[in-house]
């Protein structure tokens, strides 16, 4: 076992260590467990190298390079993976102490609010897939933000019906992008149904960390630097993230967040009502309505917050090879689109198209090897076809029904077989046409990648599992900062234009109370019994990445299910795929991709171009995690492109 990169040094690391050790004593055990080594560094496996010097400037959230040679983490009967080692460790301790996956989620989410505020926090939304082992049930929880009741279909593009100027300084950084946050109500609902430890105790790790201080990580520092102009517009954000002279606080700076400690203390004592009503709700409404810095106010109201409801949806489950994949239904397009792509791919013998240079088990993982052009082309084509349907048909089904009023029409095996027949193994479709399900509203085309999101995968001692993707939408959301947390800009996931060029209303247009379409794809995979019924839980996975999440998750599932990769190999593997456009992405940050001269010298890129794929080697910024059951417990992998870590019980 090797150690993850140091997360701190000097006095701040000591403060952090003291905080963590008061919750749980340290151990020198070097196997995967919730331990803190003497220098304050969480123990995990992996061989994290310094970030590569790849040019990552193309991404809205700056990536932190690629940690080559990471190896899988083998744990006992519980495991957790989050995007930050401090959050992973705090959640791991709850699991070790008998908490459930639902308990550990609350700890992970609140600690991430501090150490990864660019991606996630209680001012945002989330989707959660939860497996309850005792009841053998799979629940899909929807904590997606809603549009304010006062929002009109032009809310994001015009200041008012009388004033057709655009919100200032732009829709995202104005108050107009802020939806009613949903994650806390959702966690409360999941905790009511699946929690074991007292709600009030689960906030202590984040309260301690906020009071005692923690260090800004390299990734967080990069994001602050990238967003400094927008953060400077908001007095609270400026004071927290920037130095007095306006320069960004660098990596290693100690941050305390007493306002967040106070917020969490109120929520710990009084439940999520402390957030959705009373003083915190009033602060949120005032902040969304601010005109400071020349910002156009949002119309979020106390009534929007008070009436917000997290929802339980029916999980979307469909067979893939010997497994059953369960994902999130709309308003996320994630589950349906991942499963549609896999359903199309089940008509091809992908197992015979394994990546080359894969090496053996985790100790010779070789970052997932190099996928073949044949396989990348096929998978990208299946994704084009799946995205074509997504773009046209999927939105919040409480407002816009799916074809056939159910996800199953888009996932019907016969329909997907017809879609598979459209694929030519040596020629790109370019842009695929959606299937014909009659006159339903036309969609708004593929989204650009956004990166204000985090994924958490957890399995507990009781066999329960949680796969939760949680987001403030773009890095630092709307840049409005209140009571220690960032407010989301989730409403920019609505189509800005309510009608398409023919005047037909788009499915994902903005309506009051509606939830914007998402691509988040928290996923649970089960074995399938010979009679087709659901067997045991075998995989937990998910990723941030905006609309590209779907491609990241498909790649990882194919790596594990078709190519027999361990979870670290599958998440480390080159990120590749396509939305419904002629561009096929091959992540140029990966050490096995020669991204020089636009990939002109890379054999995989060359071959794909022969098929007619327009290949982009822009660096990808997935934040995948995957946990896989084996005979002795769980094996985990965390994305080498971010700062995540896996920890768990000892074997
Ligand atoms: N807001 C996006 C969605 O719901 C996620 C953004 C991201 O992953 O960075 O699909």
From TrEMBL:
<keyword id="KW-0865">Zymogen</keyword>
<dbReference type="GO" id="GO:0016787">
    <property type="term" value="F:hydrolase activity"/>
</dbReference>
<comment type="similarity">
    <text>Belongs to the gamma-glutamyltransferase family.</text>
</comment>
<keyword id="KW-0808">Transferase</keyword>
<keyword id="KW-0732">Signal</keyword>
<dbReference type="Pfam" id="PF01019">
    <property type="entry name" value="G_glu_transpept"/>
</dbReference>
<feature type="signal peptide">
    <location>
        <begin position="1"/>
        <end position="23"/>
    </location>
</feature>
<keyword id="KW-0378">Hydrolase</keyword>
<feature type="region of interest" description="Disordered">
    <location>
        <begin position="30"/>
        <end position="54"/>
    </location>
</feature>
<dbReference type="InterPro" id="IPR029055">
    <property type="entry name" value="Ntn_hydrolases_N"/>
</dbReference>
<dbReference type="InterPro" id="IPR043137">
    <property type="entry name" value="GGT_ssub_C"/>
</dbReference>
<feature type="region of interest" description="Disordered">
    <location>
        <begin position="498"/>
        <end position="528"/>
    </location>
</feature>
<dbReference type="InterPro" id="IPR043138">
    <property type="entry name" value="GGT_lsub"/>
</dbReference>
<dbReference type="InterPro" id="IPR051792">
    <property type="entry name" value="GGT_bact"/>
</dbReference>
<feature type="compositionally biased region" description="Polar residues">
    <location>
        <begin position="30"/>
        <end position="44"/>
    </location>
</feature>
<protein>
    <submittedName>
        <fullName>Gamma-glutamyltransferase</fullName>
    </submittedName>
</protein>
<dbReference type="GO" id="GO:0016740">
    <property type="term" value="F:transferase activity"/>
</dbReference>
